[in-house]
Amino acid sequence: MNVLEGEDPLAALVTTLKEEEGDPHVTPENLDMRGIRHPLYNMMRIVIRKRGGVDWRNGIELAQPIGDDYDIQSHHIFPRAQLQRAGYDTGNNHHDKKRVNEIANRVPATRSGNLDISDDPPAEYLPKVQKEYPDALEPAFVPENPRLWEMDNYEEFLRERRVRIADGINGYLDGLVDDEFLIAD
User: Fold this and answer.
1) pTM for the whole thing?
2) Each residue's pLDDT tens digit, 150-175
3) Beta carbons of 138 and 53 less than 8 angstroms apart
4) Are the C-beta atoms of residues 143 and 163 closer than 8 Å to each other?
5) What is the torsional sign of CA 94, 33, 161, 74?
């Protein structure tokens, strides 16, 4: 509380928090094997909405869904059924199950968009998304290299997307702090 009584309380508070709690930056490793119940998933959703993310099937902005068909759900970019066919055991193998359901394989989508994509492999549906909504993949941190959309490159896709998500969250959080400092000046 003493920190808040100084000349620049926000800067002092941020400095104190960093000293006592460590650097709040997200690393790609923080995302590895984390599911949608982890707070970083919600943070990713917020950042995607702030970056102008849209549903991949209907182009509706994720920040403004309307009605039951447009409730926001969590879509598996690489569908579970496809990953199971590729050898991931989504039943008894705890490691595989976490890998399939991790944040880097998830993206917010409307219910209708999620159902429409269903179990289509990303190598089939992402080129359509790219064609219909050219600016839809970047705000969602999805690598635009089609080679990474192949089932054989799933692990590489996850590594690349974790980096993008971490960078995006960090940029957003840094912007919030910078905005607060600018307002205080």
Assistant:
1) 0.84
2) 999 999 999 999 999 999 999 998 88
3) no
4) no
5) positive
